[in-house]
Amino acid sequence: MIEKDGFYPVVTIRPPAENLPLLAASVLYSLEVLPPDKVADTLVKELLTLPGAKVLSERAVELEGDVPAYQITYGVGRGEAEARGVLLVATRGSQALILDLFSFRAEFEERRQDLLNCLHSLRLEEPRPFGIARSQALTLFFPEPLTLDPAQVTELRSVQYITQIFSGLLRFTPDLELVPDLAESWEVSADGTVYTFYLHPDARFHSGRRVTAEDIKYSWERAARMGSRTILTYLGDIVGVKEVVEGKADHIQGVEVVDEGTLRVTIDAPKAYFLAKLTHPAAFVVDRVNVETGGEQWWLKPNGTGPFRLKGWLPEIVLALERNPDYHGTPAQLPYVIFRHLGGSPLRMYETGEVDVAFPLIEEIDEIEAPDNPLAKELTEVAQLSISFVGFNTAEPPFDDPLVRRAFLLAADRERLIEEVLKGRMEIAHGFLPPGLPAHDPQLTAIPFDPEEAGHLLASSSYGRDLPPLTFVTGGYTTPSPIVEALVNMWRENLGVRVEVKLIDPEDYYYRLEAEMENLYDYGWIADYPDPENFLDVLFHSQAANNVGRYANAETDQLLEEARVEPDPEARFELYRAVEEILRQDAAAIPLSFGKEFVLVKPFVTGFILNPQGLVDLRLVSLAR
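^ that's the sequence the OP posted. Answer follows.
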């Protein structure tokens, strides 16, 4: 999401054999909605920095259709090289459309009226990306995906697209009920280790080819062979997956194609959450021909099985989905969905009607909820099954010492972070299992802010108070987030420790974090499936792929392994509560907050339901303009 002003060239037109006259069209995205003359003021300031630049005249004008605009005639350069030009500015919502027509002075003066007539004859029309009319599509302002490969994705925004284009054996409803998808039904053996899936007879790829059990077997083995970051986390319970990942086998022993429509899967032990794991993109089906003939970025033209197909994608600008008329389940109601990637403030774009759905920033919520703001009734707050925390690199000094970790925990005034930085909009986390998740304990003893005790713990640690400068890895372009800045200041004030910040491009943060690891790191996790295993086992077992800080505790591992196979739900949840308490006492990480999402939805949009995983099933959305 672009959160700063941006200037983007659209097109430049010049005669085939001449350098001039030249017409350049650009779009300026602003964080505020400005009239043409205010935008022009900014352009004039930039123009006057050029050698010999001068403004000759400026005035308000109208384009065809009575569209207000602002015109600036200018000169630049000196002598024979002097050029004259006209800047024409028109605005539409948060966008400023800028036309710049210029030529050498003599030619400009000779053809002045023709050039001005050309500019004034232009007409603004509603954008039609890929030929799609605004009335036919749900339009959102949303960051573009980093990948559309189900086996490679590790971050939420790409998952939002992938779950529309691809599908797996099962899926979740908006209220997280597990239901069939590509699998019409299934059976489980008496010992809970063998699953037999019967595929939906109408399940087809977007190309029209029927989905077979062999397609699923290929998809899972491909993910295992290619070194997928997620394969062991979500399919590692299947017998033989680990061996394929390690290169010791070329096929997954526990996956058997019984016939074209039947797949038998054997897991290493009975696990209550196994079916839920199959809703993750790592378990989605891909088309072998599509993958093997499409090159490294085959997913730019994906042949999926989901309710939508990729209509078109202009990187960094816009992406469009179109309804898959042959979807095997309930078809989408929307003909198209447009995801806009370019823009300034999502809130301003929503106010001006440029988008139908927007996700405002936390600092904008007070403005939206003001008594006189009509947008207040269009705002929804959704509790997420998510947590933000600060992780420690526990495999390296000084955070291999739990006393140092606990000192940093107690020296962080997390209540102040919630109130001042997060505007009181999030819930402080005293543990690692968010509200709404089975095994969440609302009676957990609060972790206090105790700088005095923190100092004593650091002094009594194996490293003492005189720690060398440490490095906090976080996502950011030029500056760290206010939360990271506040934490760094707290540790300096309360412990006398200097913590430097290392920024990683937020686009690649979760893909590069492990390789860029230093002493501390910023981390967030949202449920892939609503089970405590997806938090505690996935993040803190010593052998877990997502245990970025390499936390290791033998007792924790033992309890987590017992919980994996415990058949009684309440007994299993008690094991997870015991693990959570160990993590709290051992200061495995610093829990900060449990998440919420805020979304603005136009009244004519129905069925836009953001689930606790932060995802929307766009099949259920309809428009009543």
